[in-house]
Amino acid sequence: MKVNANTKKLLIELATKTRNNAYAPYSHYLVGAALITNDGKIFTGCNCENASYGLTNCAERSAVFRAVAEGYRHIDAIAIVGGPLGGEMEFASPCGACRQVLAEFADKEKDMEVIVARSVENYKDYQLSELLPASFKL
Ligand code: THU
User: Fold this and answer.
1) Which residue's C-alpha comes closest to atom 3 of ligand 1?
2) Ligand 1 atom closest to Cα of 27?
3) Cα atoms in the 13 Å half-sphere on the side-chain side of 109
4) The predicted structure's pLDDT at residue 1
């Protein structure tokens, strides 16, 4: 679902703030995410790496799992902010695994807005169905 400009700005700001908590001692690539549910609740997440590299959890999935744990399953939009430690923000497009996890909680008609941001002024806007067409659903 498309969200208004104020909501978009808020999500980008919260993703940027949450990025500061990213635990990324291996890749040194810090990512923050903030999502909004259909009833206006906001959840944030950051990437959390592990010495056993494959156990790393991305920022997007961290935010989704927090929402689900609190009983929220309908996500309208998510903002993602990422970049290397000490460097400029990049357009950190969600990985394939996160796209599939997001698809689970997107509205079938209204879709989900995915905002990939370098700052509140500089972002790219997608619908999840563009990023993951023909997603697997049961
Ligand atoms: N990462 C995310 O948090 N989200 C993405 O969509 C892509 C990658 C994290 C995982 C890992 O901790 C670091 O970025 C480098 O891949």
Assistant:
1) 58
2) 15
3) 1
4) 86
Distance CA 124, CA 20 (A): 21
The whole-number pLDDT of residue 5 equals: 96
CA 89 to CA 86: how far, in whole Å?
9
Q: How many Å apart are CA 76 and CA 105, to the nearest integer? A: 9
User: Residue 27 has what pLDDT?
Assistant: 98
The predicted structure's pLDDT at residue 114? 98
Alpha carbon 125 to chain centroid distance? 12
Query: 117: which strand partners?
Result: 81, 123
Mind telling me the catalytic residues? Answer: 60
Testing ligand 1's pocket by substitution, the residue of 16, 26, 27 carrying the most ligand atoms inside 8 A of its CB is 27
Q: Which helix (H) or strand (E) holds 28?
A: none
Question: Which amino acids bring their CB within 6 angstroms of ligand 1?
Answer: 24, 27, 29, 31, 47, 49, 56, 58-60, 92, 94-95, 98
Ranges of the chain whose pLDDT falls below 70: none
